[in-house]
Amino acid sequence: MSFRSTVLLLLCLFSFTACQDSFIYDQAVEPSGNTWTYDQALNFDFNVQDTSLRYEFLLDIKHSRDYPFQNLYTRITTVFPDDTEQQDIVSLELANKLGLWEGKCRGDFCALTIALQERARFDTPGDYQLRFEQYSRQDSLPGLEEFRLRIALKE
Questions:
Q1: Which of 45, 81, 101, 146 is the most exposed place for a label (fewest CB within 10 A)?
Q2: Contact, 140 vs 105, CB < 8 A?
Q3: Which of 128, 38, 45 minimizes the C-alpha distance to 86?
Q4: 5-51 pLDDT, tens per residue?
Q5: For the chain, which domains are there?
Q6: Distance between CA 141 and CA 118 in Å, rounded?
Q7: Contacts with 35 (C-beta within 8 Å, 6 or more apart), sequence order
């Protein structure tokens, strides 16, 4: 490989890595038996020190192609450092209106990333928790393999 080609390759690699998000948190939770039930909360505990920055919350969901619904209703509870809580009911859309799975599917499984919140700020440094509870009409939802919460620093 010539010197010029090597320099060009290195520049491309540096520019690619410069655009990557900087994750301060990356944790996966798997529902027991790949079935998410009402009594099984998915907890994500993280710490925030810098309240001057903005953060992006990404939820990666891996599910089977046999998951029986287009969406997934969840109750998301944020627990703040002072132990106060805020709850939101959120519909996570796994398929479009035509019934085609969002994200990428390979074999028997599909994976997608949902931006839960962009450019979020924290007023108080300390320990936080995001708790996801299954909030659908059916107690047991089969085919849910993994939930991964990632928190990225945003410029």
A1: 45
A2: no
A3: 128
A4: 333 333 444 444 344 558 999 999 999 999 999 999 999 999 999 99
A5: 22-154 (2.60.120.260)
A6: 28
A7: 140, 141, 142, 143, 144
Q: How far is CA 73 from the centre of its chain?
A: 15
The candidate with the shortest Cα–Cα distance to 76, out of 62, 57, 63, is: 57
Three-class SS state of 65: coil
- Between CA 133 and CA 82 the distance in angstroms is 21
DSSP 139: S
What are 60's two structure tokens? 């990666």
Tell me which residue of 130, 154, 119 sits closest to 29, measured CA to CA. Answer: 130
pTM: 0.83
Residue whose C-alpha is closest to residue 142's, from 66, 39, 72, 30: 66
Task: Enter the tokens of residue 13.
Answer: 């690699």
CA 15 to chain centre: 25
**φ, ψ (nearest 5 deg) of residue 147:** -120, 130
Residues 74, 130: contact at Cβ < 8 Å? no
Look at residue 9 and give its three-state secondary structure.
helix
> What does the pLDDT look like over 40-90, one tens digit per residue?
999 999 999 999 999 999 999 999 999 999 999 999 999 999 999 999 999
